[in-house]
């Protein structure tokens, strides 16, 4: 009873403070009146509690009214201007004039390779552009590249980049200029150690090492040593390193290897606390945005940005994916929802989520979209998950590529690591394209996928449906349940 009264007073205060609740993208934009908010019909206090497995809450919301569902989601994902995010605090009063980018000149990535995940149909002229000739000396895109981008991607207004993390373009230009100086002489360099771990785990840790090196005044260099995920000669040829798949991270790499006989490699501890892993200037950088200032949110934001930079795919990777799809096309080009279902050896680190529990989130999406027959793309190593979904669901269209799947985990993947990596990137691209994504961020691959979705995937404003282990889903939600640090656990080191 005390909790119910507390919720009632909170609701009354919010009503007086904000007058009305905009239900945003979900359709009904009528204000919720005070009587309705305090009535039993909108008693969703049961949803403001600590959940250990988040597919439970989507199941509970299945019994909620449409008004309760919209009300809950708008609290979990507050909206500031035209952006919706779990990173925002509960109030948007101080950011009425906020925009994702400040001007049209800033609404363009510093290099065309950032756009490759979003579109593989790049012009031949773009392909000819050197990765390190995209910025003028003052750090702005040269006029030739700007014209290409504007013509092909129709980037002519702020709206085209309003669906990325706030200040993404500005952050990426800072990274690009740091990594690609006008001269390499007099700079300090350090190699990032790259581990033979699971693919998602390696990428997350590389992003943290990258920022740590940058904070100490170094230009991070990717080592040219053999990497297990690029060990197959059928695709990588002689380049068995990170750059088999991704663009070089610095224009000084050749200079470093030509002039430094003694290599400088970072000594790194795997579980350093969050402050080591975001730029020292990040608080001031984000101070004019609605993003909540905390160790975890700064880390989450920074990792998403650095992963976007590190994982700029080479054109040959995009071409491989395009060629694969020609041989194994998906029956539908329009995908509503993508899911990454992580089973196998991940059970050592987290509770595995049963396949059909992922559908709890899909049922909520059906209601939001007012669309019964959703098209769902499945990314998974578990072939049984695909069989189960196809045989047990009548109101969704389940898509998946017809590749061989091994559910044995990292040690099994190593036997055919390069092919596993290629298939993973193929699935990743489809997950970046769908409007909604369902997964669990304790899966490193789901974490990487969502990080790219809110940056180079242009899906920052879309709701991410967590189904795994997490106490709360957003800054605002953590506050509502009284979690001391006000941030989800999985935004930090886990």
Cα-atom Rg, whole angstroms? 23 Å
Shape label? globular
Structural category is alpha/beta
Largest sheet geometry: 5 strands, parallel
Pfam families: FUT8_N_cat
Protein name: Alpha-(1,6)-fucosyltransferase N- and catalytic domain-containing protein
InterPro entries: Fut8_N_cat
GO molecular function, one term: alpha-(1->6)-fucosyltransferase activity
Tell me what the structure shows.
The protein has about 500 residues and is an alpha/beta fold. Among the domains are: about 140 residues, no CATH class; about 160 residues, Rossmann fold, CATH 3.40.50.11350. The protein contains 19 helices and nine strands. The strands form three sheets. The chain has a five-stranded parallel sheet, with helices on both faces. The longest helix has 17 residues. It is globular and about 65 Å long. The N terminus is likely disordered.
């Amino acid at each position: 009873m005390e909790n119910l009264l507390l919720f009632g007073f909170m609701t009354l205060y919010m009503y007086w403070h904000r007058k009305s609740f905009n239900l945003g993208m979900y359709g009904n934009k009528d204000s919720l009146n005070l009587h309705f908010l305090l009535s039993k019909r909108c008693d969703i206090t049961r949803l403001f509690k600590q959940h250990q497995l988040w597919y439970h809450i989507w199941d509970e919301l299945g019994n909620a009214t449409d008004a309760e569902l919209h009300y809950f989601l708008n609290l979990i994902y507050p909206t500031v201007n035209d952006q919706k995010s779990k990173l925002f605090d509960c109030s948007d009063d101080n950011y009425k004039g906020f925009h994702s980018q400040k001007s049209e000149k800033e609404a363009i990535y510093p290099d065309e390779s950032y756009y490759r995940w979003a579109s593989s149909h790049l012009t031949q002229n773009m392909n000819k552009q050197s990765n390190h000739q995209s910025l003028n000396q003052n750090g702005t895109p040269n006029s030739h590249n700007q014209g290409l981008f504007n013509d092909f991607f129709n980037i002519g207004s702020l709206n085209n980049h309003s669906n990325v993390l706030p200040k993404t373009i500005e952050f990426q230009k800072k990274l690009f200029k740091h990594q690609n100086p006008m001269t390499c002489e007099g700079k300090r360099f350090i190699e990032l150690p790259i581990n033979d771990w699971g693919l998602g785990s390696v990428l997350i840790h590389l992003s943290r090492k990258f920022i740590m090196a940058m904070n100490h005044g170094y230009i991070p260099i990717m080592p040219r040593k053999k990497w297990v995920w690029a060990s197959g000669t059928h695709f990588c040829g002689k380049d068995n390193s990170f750059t088999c798949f991704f663009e070089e991270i610095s224009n000084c790499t050749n200079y470093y290897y030509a002039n430094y006989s003694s290599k400088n490699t970072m000594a790194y501890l795997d579980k350093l606390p969050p402050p080591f892993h975001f730029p020292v200037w990040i608080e001031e950088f984000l101070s004019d945005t609605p993003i909540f200032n905390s160790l975890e949110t700064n880390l989450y934001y920074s990792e998403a940005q650095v992963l976007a930079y590190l994982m700029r795919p080479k054109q040959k990777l995009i071409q491989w994916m395009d060629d694969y799809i020609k041989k194994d096309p998906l029956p539908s080009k329009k995908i509503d929802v993508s899911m990454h279902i992580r089973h196998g050896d991940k059970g050592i680190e987290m509770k595995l989520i049963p396949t059909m529990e992922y559908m709890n989130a899909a049922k909520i999406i059906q209601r939001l979209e007012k669309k019964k027959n959703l098209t769902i793309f499945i990314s998974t190593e578990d072939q049984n998950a695909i069989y189960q979904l196809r045989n047990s669901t009548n109101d969704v269209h389940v898509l998946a590529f017809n590749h061989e799947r091994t559910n044995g985990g990292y040690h099994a993947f190593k036997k055919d690591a390069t092919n596993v990596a290629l298939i993973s990137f193929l699935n990743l691209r489809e997950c970046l394209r769908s409007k909604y994504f369902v997964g669990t961020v304790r899966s490193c691959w789901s974490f990487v996928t969502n990080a790219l979705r809110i940056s180079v995937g242009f899906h920052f404003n879309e709701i991410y449906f967590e189904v795994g282990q997490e106490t709360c889903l957003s800054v605002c939600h953590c506050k509502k349940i009284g979690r001391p640090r006000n941030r989800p656990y999985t935004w930090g080191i886990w």
